[in-house]
Design a protein that fits this description.
This protein is an alpha+beta fold and 127 residues long. It has one domain. The protein has four helices and five strands. A five-stranded mixed beta sheet has the order 1-2-3-4-5. The radius of gyration is 14 Å and the shape is elongated. This is ABC transporter substrate-binding protein. Keywords: Signal.
C-alpha cells in the first residue's frame, strides 16, 4: 500500500459508510455506474461478488482525498455469512487511478469490511 492510500482512511471510510446508509442507490447491473454501492452490496449478498464504477458524492470525496483523476471502482465480495441470510460480512475494495503521490501518479486503494444487510441496514446486535 502506498503512503497515500494509508492517509486518513478512517475518516474516508466513515464518510463512505455514512453515504451507504443514507443515500438511495441508483444503478443498473453489476459492472455498471452507480451513485452509491448499495445495489452492489445487495448483489454481493445474494451472489457472493459484485463490481461497479461509483459516481456522485462518494467519488467526489475520493477524488478530493487522493487528488485522483481516474474512475472510482469498487469490488464487493462476501467474507462470511451472518445469522440473518439477508446480512453478510462484506469486503469492499475501492480503487481510483491517477492519485497524486510524491513518486508520481499511482492507484489509490482503500479496503474496508463491514457487516451489512441487503437493504443497507446494519445487522442486529447478535451478529
Amino acid at each position: 500500500m502506498t503512503p497515500l492510500a494509508a492517509r486518513r482512511p478512517v475518516r474516508l471510510a466513515l464518510a463512505v459508510l455514512a453515504s451507504v446508509a443514507i443515500t438511495l442507490a441508483h444503478a443498473q447491473v453489476d459492472g455498471q455506474l452507480v451513485d452509491t454501492p448499495l445495489l452492489l452490496i445487495a448483489d454481493a449478498i445474494r451472489n457472493g461478488h459484485a463490481h461497479g464504477i461509483v459516481a456522485g458524492p462518494i467519488a467526489e470525496q475520493f477524488r478530493r482525498q487522493f487528488n485522483a483523476s481516474g474512475l472510482l471502482t469498487v469490488d464487493v465480495s462476501t467474507v462470511r455469512s451472518l445469522r440473518n441470510p439477508e446480512c453478510k460480512r462484506l469486503k469492499l475494495v475501492w480503487s481510483q487511478a491517477g492519485a497524486s503521490t510524491p513518486n508520481g501518479p499511482d492507484t489509490a486503494v482503500l479496503t474496508t469490511e463491514m457487516n451489512i444487510c441487503a437493504d443497507g441496514s446494519p445487522p442486529g446486535d447478535s451478529e
